[in-house]
Amino acid sequence: MHTYIIPIPSTINITLNKRQNILLIKSQLGTVNFHLSKFDPKGEILISIEQDSITLKSYSKIAITLKKLLENKFHGVQRGFLIYLQIIGVGYRVEKDQNENILYFKLGHSHDITYKLPQGIRVFLQSGTSLCLFGLDKNQLTQVASSIRKLRPPEPYKGKGIRLLNENIKLKTDLKSSKK
Fold it and tell me: Where in this chain does the record put each Large ribosomal subunit protein uL6 alpha-beta domain (predicted)?
């Protein structure tokens, strides 16, 4: 049996709901739920929570993944995560509704695209073509960034579309210009 000890930072409060098998992780920034039953449906991992650490005991390799996911939750509740997206293209831009978490994209279609952000995700518009997503849960944040990117993925010839800030897009060369 392998034992993994995860230190709990002093700024985090953790409670275990044994009936629903959920860890509730709280800090100044907010609260994140962690459903243990999704990762250990058979109950093979033994979890004990002390004042300053969580102990995972298991025969399976799932405990290593569970340890890393818990560390990500701790990081998210303490500092949060940021993902920057960039919109490239003439006339492409994004606007935000001030009252609600709704984004309006102009992406070269005949209509504007409306995107409602889920609870727990905040957006900061740096310009009309650059936005920053902030969230406490890394998995939820990356899913939201991916679904926004899918609204208009970068096309392979000119690279127009929505991309991550540091993403490199490999562009195809034009066949007509390469034959000349």
Answer: 88-163
pTM value is 0.83
Domain, as residue range, for 103: 81-164
Cα distances (Å, whole numbers) of residue 72 to 25, 34, 75, 80: 11, 11, 5, 10
Which of 78, 107, 142 delimits the end of a domain? 78
Tens digits of pLDDT across the chain (180 residues): 778 888 888 888 888 887 777 888 999 889 998 887 777 666 666 777 777 888 877 767 777 888 888 889 999 999 999 999 999 999 999 999 888 889 999 998 899 999 999 999 999 998 999 999 999 999 999 999 999 999 999 998 888 999 999 888 888 876 665 555
Q: Do 131 and 123 meet the contact criterion of CB atoms below 8 Å apart?
A: yes
Q: Which of 56, 54, 41 is nearest to 12 (CA)?
A: 54
As for how many domains the chain has, the answer is 2
